[in-house]
């Protein structure tokens, strides 16, 4: 029988996921109003920077570049982990059962022992980590281009090259080649 604490923790985790999603939605709404104000300001002070770009396109680029995507992916990862937990627990229990039977079903490793609890806990945490890792991979794979590049592309201009020479920070150690060994005369 599942303890009531498990249901309470699952509800709390879903509430945290909902708060992350709400944070993302509020930030997007705020960014849309900021984008409209930025477009209006640029149309007066720097009209060349928004040439051939409509206000709706500018707003879309602005929001896509500056939205807190992490909150949306964190909400998705947390909600997915909570909703997949029953299947995860069944899967881990089934794999443990197969391994236990393959080992000859020793009494000390049954479903009530510490070995089972260890496998259940760490198997569940591992599968939750896989879910979180999948969402992290999506987050990094779908990273939007920088706003300046997206705006230049929307204007029909080539993307500005920013990959030029970069000075080494003062705190970084300089790599020095090994001195050439002197050839000894024989």
Number of E strands: 0
Q: What would you call the shape?
A: flat
Strand content: under 5%
Overall pLDDT level: 87
Count of all domains: 1
Q: Quick one: biggest sheet?
A: none
Region (Disordered): 157-186
Keywords: Membrane, Transmembrane, Transmembrane helix
Transmembrane segments: 6-26, 70-93, 113-136
Biased composition (Basic residues): 165-174
Task: Tell me what you see in this structure.
It is built from five helices and no strands. It is mainly alpha-helical and 186 residues long. The protein has one domain. Helix 2 runs antiparallel to helix 5 and helix 3 runs antiparallel to helix 4. It starts with a helix and ends in a 31-residue tail after the last helix.
Tag the structure with descriptive keywords.
single chain; mainly alpha; flat; membrane; transmembrane helix; transmembrane
Provide a quick synopsis of the model.
With 186 residues, the chain is mainly α.
Summarize the SSE layout with pairings:
Blueprint: H1 4-45, H2 55-66, H3 69-102, H4 114-141, H5 147-155
């Amino acid at each position: 029988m599942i303890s009531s604490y498990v249901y309470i923790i699952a509800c709390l985790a879903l509430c945290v996921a909902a708060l992350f999603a709400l944070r993302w939605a509020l930030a997007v709404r705020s960014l849309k109003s900021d984008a409209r104000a930025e477009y209006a300001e640029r149309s007066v002070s720097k009209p060349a920077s928004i040439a051939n770009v409509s206000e709706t396109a500018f707003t879309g680029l602005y929001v896509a570049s500056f939205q807190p995507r992490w909150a949306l992916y964190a909400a998705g990862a947390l909600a997915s982990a909570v909703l997949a937990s029953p299947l995860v627990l069944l899967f881990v229990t089934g794999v443990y059962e197969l391994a236990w039977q393959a080992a000859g079903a020793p009494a000390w490793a049954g479903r009530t022992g510490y070995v089972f609890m260890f496998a259940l806990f760490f198997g569940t945490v591992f599968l939750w980590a896989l879910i979180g890792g999948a969402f992290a991979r999506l987050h990094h794979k779908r990273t939007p281009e920088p706003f300046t590049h997206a705006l230049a592309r929307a204007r029909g201009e080539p993307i500005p090259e920013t990959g030029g020479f970069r000075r080494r920070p003062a705190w970084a150690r300089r790599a020095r080649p090994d001195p050439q060994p002197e050839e000894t005369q024989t």
